Amino acid sequence: MTDHQASPTPKTIAVLGTGKIGEALLSGMIRGGRRPADLLVTARRADRAEELRTRYGVESVTNAEAAKRADTLILTVKPQDMAKLLEELTPHLPTNPDAGTSPLIISGAAGIPTSFFEERLAPHTPVVRVMTNTPALVDEAMSVISAGSHATPADLAHAEEIFGGVGKTLRVPESQQDAATALSGSGPAYFYFLVEAMTDAGILLGLPRAQAHDLIVQAAIGAAVMLRDSGEHPVKLREAVTSPAGTTINAIRELENHGVRAALISALEAARNRSRELASGTG
Ligand SMILES: NC(=O)C1=CN([C@@H]2O[C@H](COP(=O)(O)OP(=O)(O)OC[C@H]3O[C@@H](n4cnc5c(N)ncnc54)[C@H](OP(=O)(O)O)[C@@H]3O)[C@@H](O)[C@H]2O)C=CC1
Ligand SMILES: O=C(O)[C@@H]1CCC=N1
Start and end of every Pyrroline-5-carboxylate reductase dimerisation domain (predicted)? Predict the structure, then answer.
């Protein structure tokens, strides 16, 4: 296909800045049946480019080449690297595209609003902002999707199709993206932190580390599946575990005494605030 012609189904997808999130998406697209020949990747280091080529059979190109050849550019560099990446891309993107003829820009970066891209790119450039998370690696991502000013329903559907291949998607107004970043973007880290802490508790209680880890991980998986599949409110599920004069209520009292609920609320608020700070793309 000629560069950037209007097309209802964009063909070539480039992942720019293929680190942890970029690779998770790339591997998901290939698992989902997309041909490596329809994918391009870019990386800052030659050894990383080679690694991606070897691992996935995809072509590794420069950012300039990706801008010229791809119909969809998924930008997965750190927020602080986004301005520089855009500087590298803009000379190679159409400068005065008609509506519908520009490549779709999908940003996976925390904090950076679609206006950041629209201010730096040609008029009509469609931009979609997505906050995914690392469980994309196991097709259990949560990807929260918002349209920029020029993104069409087809652009949103295309982003949903890409990210839907690695988990669930949800459309939200862009004003909710910083909150979503705090909840689901960073969310897996909170659960890993809890598992780490509870495994330490198992050690304190005399269990071997590997056994403590397995017990807590399976409790987490069981709880997660029940939260997802039972349709019950978490309070109900917790009440079902909490027997009168039993063990669980003693633990819950300690969690409340130590302000864990308030700590979590403050923690997510801090993450949301940091996402807002990242909006300028300067760190
Ligand atoms: N990690 C997570 O859980 C999540 C991250 N995100 C967002 O995804 C984005 C990427 O995060 P993550 O994958 O963790 O970060 P990584 O550092 O793993 O990936 C970013 C990659 O971009 C490369 N890079 C930087 N600048 C350029 C450039 N100009 N051209 C080509 N490659 C470049 C980096 O190269 P080098 O290796 O040399 O540094 C690195 O490999 C961030 O914006 C983050 O906010 C969103 C949701 C969850
Ligand atoms: O910590 C971060 O900034 C990124 C964005 C969401 C998860 N990780």
Answer: 174-278
Q: How far apart are CA 281 and CA 248, in angstroms?
A: 45
174-181 average pLDDT score: 98
Phi/psi of residue 38, nearest 5 degrees: -95, 5
Q: Strand locations in the chain, DSSP E?
A: 13-16, 39-42, 59-60, 72-75, 104-107, 127-131, 141-147, 167-171
Closest ligand 2 atom to Cα of 186: 7
Are domains 13-177 and 187-277 of this chain identical in fold? no
pLDDT, one tens digit per residue, over 122-136 is 999 999 999 999 999
Please give the ipTM for the structure prediction.
0.99
For ligand 2, pick from 81, 107, 133, 181 the residue to mutate: most ligand atoms within 8 Å of CB. Answer: 181
